[in-house]
Specification:
Blueprint (H helix, E strand, L loop, with lengths): L3 E5 L2 E3 L2 E3 L2 E4 H23 L4 H26 L1 H6 L4 H4 L6 H18 L4 H26 L18 H7 L10 H22 L5 H17 L10 E2 L4 E2 H22 L6
Antiparallel strand pairs: 1-4, 2-3, 5-6
Helix pairs in contact: 1-2, 1-6, 2-5, 6-8, 6-9, 8-9, 9-10
């Protein structure tokens, strides 16, 4: 765990006191994730004959909407906590939120942008999917550095032990206890997913195949990873039988499987 890259101590300037100021590792890695995703999206767009600038602008718009959606779902799944302690809403500004909330927030904005700029819908989404997986892989390293999205107690030899008091105060990660490195599980899983999607993109049979594979594989990955999560602010359905993310993952799998035969029969999109 490395929540703070560095801290500038308090100082006086022109008779006024400033600081201390800290640069958080989570924020640094989140920026790296966004820049890497935009870079890959632009590169893939150029190979597919799409306008790289429009695709990258689409990525920026979707990222902004996704961040808002992720935080809104975080508040929704743990509404009682924020209702009883409104000050806790300030902590939402320092957390990444729930990924599926980000996905649900980004989809309508992406759809609107694609329609407005007359981009081929499924070809564009196929280009964006590997970039999204890359962004997730880097972003989850930020979660690991901050201690959020932490795992459940573990006896595995690769367990991790967090010891930073600032992280416990901010995200509630337990200290001194061996935990599953759930953040690294998802980081490695989404990195592998990116390479799978790049291979599918090179050999796809129809437009929409890549984004469909992303939705299917990530849903299965996320459903499984939820069993290794130890943070409780994730919401639940059916009396706690499933987490909110597991329920959404199941819905995503069924909807994607239903859409695949339709996509396979569509005529190829033109740029």
């Amino acid at each position: 765990m490395f929540p703070k890259l560095f801290t500038v101590p308090a100082f006086d300037l022109f008779g006024r006191n400033f600081g201390p100021f800290s640069l958080h590792m989570y924020g640094v890695l989140l920026v790296c994730a966004l820049l890497a995703a935009l870079w890959l999206a632009g590169r893939l767009a150029r190979k597919e004959g799409l306008d790289p600038q429009k695709v990258q602008d689409l990525g920026i718009a979707s990222i902004i909407a996704g961040l808002i959606g992720a935080k809104l779902l975080l508040v929704a799944v743990d509404f009682d906590q924020y209702r009883l302690s409104p000050r806790a809403l300030l902590d939402v500004l320092q957390s990444g939120g729930v990924f599926y909330g980000g996905l649900l927030g980004g989809i309508p904005v992406a759809w609107w942008y694609i329609k407005k700029h007359r981009l081929p819908l499924f070809n564009t989404l196929d280009v964006m999917a590997p970039a999204l997986a890359l962004g997730q892989a880097i972003g989850r390293l930020g979660c690991f550095a901050a201690g959020c999205c932490y795992g459940s107690p573990s006896t595995a030899p690769w367990s991790v032990i967090f010891q930073n008091e600032d992280a416990r105060a901010l995200v509630g990660v337990p200290l001194g206890i061996p935990l599953h490195p759930s953040q690294l599980y998802e980081s490695f899983g989404t990195l592998a997913l990116m390479f799978i999607l790049l291979a599918v993109l090179r050999n796809r049979k129809f437009h929409g195949q890549v984004v469909s594979m992303y939705l299917l594989i990530y849903a299965v990955l996320r459903f499984a990873l939820e069993f290794f999560r130890g943070d409780v602010a994730r919401g639940s359905v059916f009396g706690g039988a499933l987490s909110t993310s597991q329920f959404i993952a199941i819905v995503v799998v069924f909807l994607t499987l239903a859409a695949l035969p339709v996509l396979a029969k569509r005529k190829p999109e033109t740029v």
